[in-house]
Amino acid sequence: MSKDVFDLEMDLKLKKAIEDLPDSIPLEKDLWDAIDKGITEPKIHKNRFSFKPDWNQLAVACSFLMAAFALVFSTQKPVIIVQESNTTQGNYQAIRTQLKEDLPQRLEHLSTEAKETILVNLQLIEIALLEIETALSEDPGNNELIALLHKTLEKERLLIESAEKLRL
Description:
Layout: H1 3-20, H2 32-40, H3 55-75, H4 86-108, H5 112-138, H6 143-165
Helix pairs in contact: 4-6, 5-6
């Protein structure tokens, strides 16, 4: 059997199968009445509010707002407000001076290695304090530098006080 004869036979079979198909298929359930009723009858709401939220749109709106807030707040620099009175600064300087004067007595009880560690750390803190004070002299209103100065002074105080606790 040649290919053309085979194709011809297949075409005839397909044509017969198409002709044997019914012209219409009966529906198991006719929904047109329900659709017509839904369109033409007035809607009666059991709830006095007729608003039904579309949760997808609400979720998108909330996500957009959260992203906008994150963008706004992540681009703002934190503002550190540091206010000092002269008496507070004077008291701190007096305490700092007293701690530094007491340092040799605090170091007496420590091993040589511990003394060296504390003294090296104090030198590093003093270098950092000088650098911060130099930067503050160029930019006296910089709140970040002021906060850094306070943190460094606090570290110095804690280091001096810890010498007493390191007795061997």
